[in-house]
Amino acid sequence: MDVDITRSRVGGRARAPPSKSYTHRAILAAGYSDGAVVADPLVSADTRATMRAVEAFGGTVDRTDGDLDVTGFAGRPGVPDDVIDCANSGTTTRLVTACAALGDGLTVLTGDDSLRSRPQGPLLDAVEQLGGRAESTRGNGQAPLVVGGPIAGGTVSIPGDVSSQYITALLMAGAVTDDGIDIDLETELKSAPYVDITLEVLDAFGIEAAETTTGYRVPGGQRYERVDPYPVPGDFSSMSYLLAAGAVAGAEGGVVVEGAYPSAQGDSAIVDVLERMGADISWDREAGEITVRRSDLTGVEVDVGDTPDLLPTIAVLGAVADGDTRIVNCEHVRLKETDRVRAMATELETLGAAVTEEEDTLTIHGGESDLRGATVAGHDDHRIVMSLAIAGLVAEGTTAVAGADHVDVSFPGFFDVLYDLGAELDEHER
Ligand SMILES: O=C(O)C1=C[C@@H](OP(=O)(O)O)[C@@H](O)[C@H](O)C1
Ligand SMILES: C=C(OP(=O)(O)O)C(=O)O
Prior knowledge:
Helix 1 packs parallel to helix 2. The chain has a four-stranded mixed sheet with strand order 22-23-1-24, with helices on one face. Strands 2-15-17-16 form a four-stranded mixed sheet. The protein has twelve helices and 24 strands. Strand 22, helix 11 and strand 23 form a beta-alpha-beta unit. The mean pLDDT is about 95. The protein is of the alpha/beta class. The termini are close together.
């Protein structure tokens, strides 16, 4: 499926989908428990992969009245009957790898082309340090993976600058080991707020875990409690596209995004980024509403060390803003569904923006008048597709984005929401 977006204004109210990160963790935490109800979950391609994994380990996941009723495997994952297909989801792959290391047998994990190109080596190494078996079938640190245990816990040393999901995975699994897991970080931790989300979810399920002077520690011998219901907050990464749409193409009255309650999500930093760029934006935290109106934006410097998923959105904002937008500390953003630094540089150039790409910095030399509609590649990556769609709202003429169906990974219905806000768009088969 492709989508054609014609320059248009957007306005009105929209609700962002529930958080992907919280949903993954809540489903798996429910799996680690006897059972739990995940209320208002994100049901998307990625979270369905985590549901499949919980079922593969012996749990069940039923959708009732929009909630997920999960029966868990009570800390003892069974040996799956079949390979676990993690599809496009890095979070599923990492979180399930550590869970598989608790099993008394082997689990095989694989996924799509993109997933099978992403780095798993440091997590496999961590599982081996704990006495488990963890192999990449091709010996290149990428899926397909073969993982088994049972591990009893211990101390691991792991880099923090590849993926915070390794830390999340070890904390979630470590709670039900005999000895717990001490994680020593070999480098500074990137994407750190995602570990804060993990600690928040673990706490809600009655699991103790904490930051230490050298990393993180989770004591062993714990039991995940039954939580009913566990409510999932709105997703700020998904909101970033709606907020950006309001800032660059808002009609009179602007765009109001609902479901924006404060949580541990680092990506709520998008509000601050827009403010610094000069957007007319206000966040009513009590009401959970963010209102943004179209304004002239100015380039700023943004460090995305904590917020990698905001890079595509900020890159588009930078292309519309006057002056340079420097996105720094972004090397780890190259390790996502695609190399998002390269992908955004390439596609924004196709739309007429001037861009300088360095290993850990992306500079966009902005100016709205530069953007002209063109056919751009979505790189089979939901965030590239959604951010380019926002660029299409301001580019002269029509912008064709390939691979529009990939939004199902994190924001099913994204184009319906954009259309309802007034965007002129047409989804069609290639
Ligand atoms: O734990 C999570 O829910 C996530 C962590 C981040 O990945 P890294 O920790 O690999 O940077 C983020 O990019 C991803 O979309 C979701
Ligand atoms: C990188 C992402 O997710 P994951 O790592 O779970 O594939 C994302 O949603 O942008």
